[in-house]
Amino acid sequence: MVRHGARGSSGRRRSPRGDSTRPDAGVVTYVLKRFAARCFLELSASLHFEVVVVPPPKPAGRGLKESLSPLEEVAKVGYGPLIRTYDVNREPILLDTPRKEWPDVIIVVDFGQKIKEPILSTPTFGCINIHPSLLPAYRGAAPIQRALMDGKEETGVTVFRLVDAMDAGPILAQRRYPISPDATAGQLCEALAREGSHLLLEVLEGLSKGSIREEPQDESEATYAPRSQRMRPSYDGVNPQSAFTTW
């Protein structure tokens, strides 16, 4: 893991951009797909990323050529070290890093792998996720598409701390967002990535000031948004009900 930013006399690292109101900006980011890529681009204007961790490319298309995730396509150009891993919980470059050298926070967006201990609790502020729904509604892999399929008029973004259970950790902040009648999944993805990234920056500043209060999720209100194996996302369709196209 590459380190960036010196430690001050208090023992905490200084932000590489000189912003003392946020936790250590030497952030490790776990990311995948389009939502994650958009969040990364928004956040990279304000944060320095020490390491970016992505799953390996997967064969795609008729020729079964390796296809990079949208995040890897943007992160590989001048954003610091990039790690590919089949299992982040066994990644030596992370696990062998001394505890005192870990960043204050790990940002996790649409990574697709379950993150376990000791990674979950080693950073000062834990692992923080941007999720494109108003949790506990639409936990899971396809919250944007499911909200459109269900004809919802409103959705939002949630910034929360990861725990062992999927999308069940305490909420740090939420922001509502209206769904227009002609919205597509692609448009909503872009909007929620932008809103979620700005909200995360506010959370990081609040964490450094001690002004963020965790709120537990109401398990009785939990709903789920699994990605169906019989469907694929169609981001550019006009009709919201076509957010998924059956093969």
Summarize the structure.
This protein has 247 residues and is of the alpha/beta class. The protein contains five helices and eleven strands; from the N terminus they run E-H-E-E-E-H-E-H-E-E-H-E-E-H-E-E.
What do you see in this structure?
The protein is of the alpha/beta class and 247 residues long. The chain has one domain: Formyl transferase, N-terminal domain (Rossmann fold, 3-Layer(aba) Sandwich), CATH 3.40.50.170. It has 5 helices and 11 strands; from the N terminus they run E-H-E-E-E-H-E-H-E-E-H-E-E-H-E-E. The chain has helices at 34-43, 70-75, 92-95, 143-149, 185-209, and strands at 27-31, 49-54, 58-60, 65-67, 82-84, 106-109, 127-131, 154-161, 171-178, 231-233, 244-246. A hairpin with a 4-residue loop joins strand 3 and strand 4 (65-67).
